[in-house]
Amino acid sequence: MAAAIAILFFITTFLAAATAVLIAAFIQSRLRARQEAHPEMNAVSAEDSGDSVLLSETSHSSISLLEIVLKRLNVIEHLRRVLDDAGLRWSVGRVAATMLLLGAIGAALVMDVRWLPPGSSLAAFAAGVAVPYLYIAKLRQKRMDQYESQFPDALESLARAMRAGHPLQSAIESLASEMAAPLGPEFRRIRDERRLGMPWKVTLEKFSERVPILEVRLFVAAALVSTRSGGRFTEVLENLAETVREGVALRGEIRAVSAHGRMTGGVLTILPFGIAGMLYLTSPDYLLVLVDHPFGPTMIGAAIAFVVAGHFVIQRIVKIRV
Questions:
Q1: pTM of the predicted model, to two decimals?
Q2: What is the CA radius of gyration of the chain?
Q3: CB environment 178-210: b (16+ within 10 A), e (fewer)
Q4: Hey, what CATH topology would domain 143-256 get?
Q5: What is the pLDDT of residues 102-118, one digit of tens each?
Q6: How far is CA 48 from CA 44, 53, 224, in A?
């Protein structure tokens, strides 16, 4: 009975939230249609306000109310940066709503499980919220690895172009049309920003913000120093390319060496749950003794907590920073 009430409460809450979203979207579409029907009024209001039409602010959600709420949360800015680093064009509002929805589903699923200890619903909610973020973080790390593997070739191409007599800006423009994604679009953005008149220092600093790896920061610092004081920038690029290539190779060797430890940690984490499932299928009475005992839920909760903590400790041990 309690499970049916919990599911009914969740469905009612979800339908109410969906109805509110649909109403807000309908109102916003009507306002947008009215603005499109009277474009001269929008132009006059923009001129009166004195704001430039070339300046735009990043929108977190297409729903006005949700946009106001998200702007007041500092964690949303971190989520937006992670989405940008992962190369995803998802809105922050959509991701936040998905995280809350999965968290609510996880809490509803374990709410009426009698053998789980108190606080399991909160833990299930946190796990559901973390699933989309972990997926996005994995995509971000994959994209950062692609940046690191492409960057040495890009530095060598820049060095060859500058040895042939091209300035740095011209070398970047020629590289922008040849380099593949994900690094190629970033160099094309540098080219477009320079053509629009953005200062060289601001362009490079924005490039280091969009590609947050150490090698790019070193390249930007060397380029800024070279533009101010000159020097043999081509040799700096060649040495930096060699250093970056050696670092990528070293990190690959470390990942290969630590693969056994990571696999061991995964097996040790899955093994207790697998054994519990096998016992439940073969000898359910043997396992239900623990469930029916007064201290059973507490012991089960402590065991799950220690298994999860052990997984993160093993991953921490085998993770070697270079």
A1: 0.73
A2: 27
A3: ebeeebbebbbebbebeeeeeeeeebbebbbee
A4: Receptor-associated Protein (1.20.81)
A5: 998 988 888 877 777 77
A6: 6, 12, 40
